[in-house]
Predict the structure.
Amino acid sequence: ISGTFKVADFIVDNSEGSPSFLEGPTTLSNRYAAAQWVTLNTEKGTIPAAGMVIIDGKIRVPSDANPGGKYFAVFFEPTSNIPDPTGGKQEEAASVSMRIAGLVYLRVSGPVTESAEVIKFSAPGFSEYGPVDISTEIKNNGDYHITPKGQVTVKDMFGLEVAKADIGETNIFPNASRTIVTKLGTKWMIGKFTADFNATYGESGKTLASSLTFWVFPWKVAIAVTLGIIIIILIVIILSNKFTKKQKKLEEELTEEKEELEKLKDALKDKISSITEPSPITEEEKK
């Protein structure tokens, strides 16, 4: 692939950390620009298939350069059509300009300011399920890029740690912010939780900290379980009432049967007594 090698300043003006190249005359502050200091030994070249090319260059740092970070990019821009992976040839109207870039960081010696802050530490106030996405946005107010190192810790309402994760190593350029999203927790989380962010940055080990609270409760499942319990209780009550009524009816029938038996018993006693009792003797029989 044939193309040109270029040098350009770049800025990071979004919280995702994606650089934007600034070619030609730019209003970018010389505080961080360094492309004008760089001279490459070649402007055109060809990269062989499955090969590589080494480009040499020189960096001339002005004597009055202010201390701190300086940034530029060296990139390769193809000038010929790029072969289609399927073996065909891309149409020019549908072609997309591609660049292969490498970002270069310089530091001019001297006193620099190391300053950063957490401008946003957030999570959904209420979630039905975990894990929960916790966003941390850090802004670099210093003169040199920083790479914060730290963790986000989640504790439950009893102060017990339930999750912890590193934020990873992410470069944050001067006057830029970076959003780091950390997914913490498990699916089944219930109650109030506290998330704490603690990190260090810079050569002096300065600290960053922030905290927030959020709730997680599976309300749909809770409603379904509650309704299920209510239905079970109602079924038990209905069956219990039916059993009680049936038992009461049986007791009443037994009482009636007992009364009838008592009546029959008394009647039988009277009949037996009348049979066995001797009849009285009349006057005629005495004579």
User: Anything to note?
Assistant: Confidence is low (pLDDT under 50) at residues 89-95.
